[in-house]
Amino acid sequence: MVKGANVGLTALSENVGSVVVGLGWSSATGEGDADVSVLLLDGDGKVRSDGDFCFYNNPVAGNGSVQLLGKTPTADGSEDRISFDLDAVPQEIDKVVVAASRYGGSRFGELDDLRLTLADSAGDGLVRFAVDGADEVSAVVFGELYRRSGEWKFRAVGQGYASGLAGLATDYGVDIDDTEEEDAPEPADLADRAEAADLAEDGRPEPGMPAHEPPKSEEPPEESPVSRVPAQATGPRADDTPEPPAPERPAAPRPARRPRTAKKKVTLPRTTRKSLADNDSWRAARLFPVPALKSDRERETRATSVVLSVMAQVPEFGRRLTAGFGAPAGRMETYTEVTLPHGESPRRPDGVIRVERAGKLWTALVETKTNGNALKPDQVQGYMDIAARRGYEAVITLSNDVALEGSPLVDVRIDGRRKHKVALWHLSWAEVVHQAQLLIRHEGVGNAAHAWLLQELLHYLQHENSGCHGFQNMGAAWVPVRRGIDDETLCQGDARALEVIENWERLVRQVCLRLGGELGQKVLPVRRTRRGSDPRALRTELADHLCEQGRLNAELRIEGTPGVLAITADLRTGRLRTSIEVPDAEPGYPLSRVKRLIRRLSEAPADLHIETLVDGQGTGPRGTLERLRPEPADIVPKDGAQITGFRLSLFKSMGSGRGSAETGFIRSVDQAVDRFHAQVVAQLEAPARRSRSAEPTG
Q1: How confident is the model over 139-152, as pLDDT tens digits?
Q2: How far apart are CA 133 and CA 486, in angstroms?
Q3: Residue 281 confidence (pLDDT) above 70
Q4: Three-class SS of residue 383?
Q5: Rounded to whole angstroms, how far apart are CA atoms 89 and 151?
Q6: Residues 6+ apart with CB under 8 A from 58
Q7: How far, rounded to the nearest angstrom, does the alpha carbon of residue 597 sit from its chain's CA centroid?
Q8: For the segment 584-612, what is each residue's pLDDT rounded down to a tens digit?
Q9: Nearest to 349 by CA among 390, 388, 401, 384
Q10: What are the counts of helices (DSSP H) followed by strands (DSSP E) for the chain?
Q11: Going by fewer Cβ within 10 Å, which terminus of the chain is more open, N or C?
């Protein structure tokens, strides 16, 4: 679509009761990011209350009809996804605005390939809109969904705000008050990413930048299906069917729409209370006992029943897992071991999920696997055929494997003659754990009983006997590839190297899920690729590099950190290196800047390696923290070269086994990342930024 164009969703697909909107961008450095916001507007073009302002501290709005699903890595960078159950959007809401904002003085011109995509409930892409001309703005309205004659439509907006998130929110009725009032707390309803300068501006544009008004709700006449809007959207546009002007009446003063404190949600403390047991041999009673499980079949049956029952009982959790699959926001019921007719041999999927909304049913069949058991293509194909015949909407597979972009875990045949489409989705056990951790540790749930249920679910899934530990095997090619690198017999084009690269990518994605759930922050793998790159071609290129260099490389972007966490597994030397480059643009003499860094690292391990980065020359002097604490001048360049930053690194022996045992490669990567983040990265994070867990107040 082009800027200003609009389209009715029912003209694109029959499956638009629920849609998923993705906002994406890429960055040459891999460090660029933005925060997504959604505003639900009434007939006056304003939010009704703070509950209609949806952002990461308030990820669900409109009675569950709008939900932020978080970020997912793509071949071109990352994509932030939002689920919309359009049938459940409150009738008072006429328009839903989708926007994103940057923080800390950053502008969208520093990001590449700004884009919006819209997919129906079956996962088929319907709309793609590339946003241009957002170079000097810190907030952008990408698009809007709006009602017209009982139908939902989409308009490509692409409008920027120089005044940032504060200016955007103010235009839509969120009152940002920068004055002190008696007994009024400091407003924190906006994202803590909004800097003090943006808050002080209170919606006014920066000097020299044009002021922008919110996009008007009118659209061009239907005889012009594709039209453009002025770049700054300063005036109304013609509507489908112009309404007669309303009779003039005295304008009543509009009450201030200041966000109020949101309802407090329940989270659980990280540390448990002191036990009342006589000794450590006493085991706490558990809702979902695990040790009695003896076979893979028992593990699959128990795991399916446990996770589906908690999904049905904890609405936030059930909605979090199904929103991205096109499920509506409604009453959920779950079932296990359901028998369904299929020729002469009935099929019994592991589970069924049903969601009812306004008399309509959404149904998904569930097939689960635990331990290292792989999904069986014939089983999944059978469930797809049953779902298509019975009018079900989806088949969901759940296993320890992690799906990769462009490489489906199970290939199924789709009968193009069938009018009804069935979506095939995959979920990893690691993602289930990730979502449960986010809810009970950081975002909160409705009541203490729900928090306790999620805690019991987490205990079950993380138990060594549950079989739900996520990706835990580097595959059969791991040992031959290591041997081939050792004796220099591994050649480019070897299919085994490609298998190792794919499993390395799965491991890195799982590390991001685990670390993100523990921290309550966005953690994503950095993708340094050319626009439009084929992810499969990229993996082939990385496999050739592995054959040539003998190293596996990955980078993680952790929200709130001043750089990118790099991981290098050198298969030749058997060492793991975790590192981060910290830019240093502070004023002062070189020695003073080095001393400041060493003071910040007062709790870091003594074997931390520090390298000085100098302008135009790469690296300068280096040394361990143990040696530099008494002699910080040792890493000051002797030739007077300008210091641009520092590289901090820790080294660790690499596990050799392909599995997740104590001596395995997977366990050693987890330990290396955890140690580096806890002992190094955590000391570098900016303390001035407000906590993401703060509740909206006004």
Answers
A1: 999 999 999 988 99
A2: 51
A3: yes
A4: helix
A5: 12
A6: 50, 51, 262, 696
A7: 31
A8: 877 788 899 899 999 999 899 999 999 99
A9: 384
A10: 14, 24
A11: N
Residues 24 and 112: their CA atoms lie apart, in Å, by: 9
Euclidean distance between CA atoms 442 and 436, whole angstroms: 10
373: Cα separation from own chain's centroid? 27
Q: What is the pTM of this model?
A: 0.79
**Which tokens go with 518?**
């523990």
Burial class (CB in 10 A: 0-12, 13-18, 19+), 688: exposed
Distance CA 597, CA 99 (A): 37
How far is residue 165's CA from residue 172's CA, in Å, rounded to a whole number?
11
d(CA 579, CA 89): 46
Mean pLDDT computed over 524-534: 75
What is the Rg, in whole angstroms, of the alpha carbon atoms belonging to the chain? 27
At position 316, the amino acid (one-letter code) is: E
Residue 457 is which amino acid? L
229 has pLDDT over 50? no
**For residue 505, what are its two tokens?**
């990518």
Distance (Å, whole) CA 317 – CA 449: 13
- How far, in Å, CA of 511 to CA of 470, rounded? 10
Contact criterion met (CB below 8 Å) for 274 and 280: no
User: What 8-state DSSP symbol labels residue 653?
Assistant: E
